[in-house]
Amino acid sequence: MLLDLATGKILVEDIPVPHVGSKRILVRTRYSAVSLGTELRIIRFARASLIKKAVERPDLVKQVLEVVKKSGVLEALTKVKERISMPFPLGYSVAGEVIAVGKDVRDFKVGDRVTCAGAEYAYHAEVVSVPENMCVKVPPNVDLQEAAFVALGAIAIHGVRNAGVSFGETVAVLGLGLLGLITVQVLKAAGCRVIGVDVDERKVNLARELGADYAFNLKSPDPRVVDEILNITSGIGVDAVIITAATKSNEPVNLAGRIARDRAKVVIVGDVGTKFDRETYYRKELQLVVSRSYGPGRYDPVYEEEGIDYPIGYVRWTLRRNMEEFMRLLSEKKINMKKIITHVFSVEEAPRAYEMILSGSSNTPIIGVVFKYSSPEEKQPEYSNIVYIKGVVEQGSSRELRSEKVRIGV
């Protein structure tokens, strides 16, 4: 599946299998996780009018104006048309098995169960080509369906690290969707006291089930959340606030200021408004941090593409080590994704699934969504342009891999 940036239409297409590359692995996807915040935002943007797009993305308008100044209107129009004519794949978190490895790959072999991250690599697709540093092995006792959420898990873990909290401290999590509920469990595993806040009573209740010490509904008949949190913390306020909500409103960042103690940290992990009440932040000398993706190494081509790791003595927690930590927490049952996964669709149903999510027509809260892919045993498609690569894909047996066409997912 691909997203048509001009119309916002979701397409299912067959394309050639990607090249493995010398420092990459080729993965046959079993499950891919949907990032509701990121993916729905991109789909809505693609479906918006040109005026609305300009309002939402003034940075893109600025780029177009720069081209107009340098090369003229016709050149600018040509570049815009080229940009929106290219189908855009969504998705950045998958799990499956290795079916081929590049000649310079050190840590993986054909047949390994792996999970991979990265918007440039780990698309919703039957086969993906991913750099070694963007992949980790899945422990034997971890289900691939849960492992598919590795990118979201690493984002949550990196957000907690940016908060700088330690054992016994009290942390508020604002927004109890997918990221928020993972964050609640990461904080509990770190020995923190956790307060969850959301506007959906069902998510509030789920946060309690997953270990939150307290959870509040902002839309309850008597939403005295600030007073309740100050009472819980003996009038001090929380040691840190992690915002995992997805809203254009500035209310989450301002609520964070009201419930935080002096010199606390407010960490933005979700996509929220950032116009905060300066007076509140000034008087408390609060630190406002925007957490970036999965951790150190992200967006560094030397780390991602070349596979050059950062020395552990200098950078303890890289993005890959955060991904490995998420796998450890799943393996030790410190994080329960089964309770968070609310919907499972076959990849063929993905366009319908997105429409259901966008319309809000589901009878149950939509939190964790995964696409399931047919295994080679379940589906044996006929393809031309066969190129054979030798590789062991099942324990004790060898098999030839074909350069097949695959469906790429949004």
UniProtKB/TrEMBL annotation:
It comes from the Archaea. Keywords: Metal-binding, Oxidoreductase, Zinc. Residues 62-362 form the Enoyl reductase (ER) domain. The keyword Zinc applies. CDD domains: 2-desacetyl-2-hydroxyethyl_bacteriochlorophyllide_like. Its cofactor is Zn(2+). GO terms for molecular function: metal ion binding; oxidoreductase activity. It holds the Pfam family ADH_zinc_N. PANTHER family: D-GULOSIDE 3-DEHYDROGENASE (PTHR43350:SF19), NAD-DEPENDENT ALCOHOL DEHYDROGENASE (PTHR43350). Belongs to the zinc-containing alcohol dehydrogenase family. This is Zinc-binding alcohol dehydrogenase. It comes from Ignisphaera aggregans.
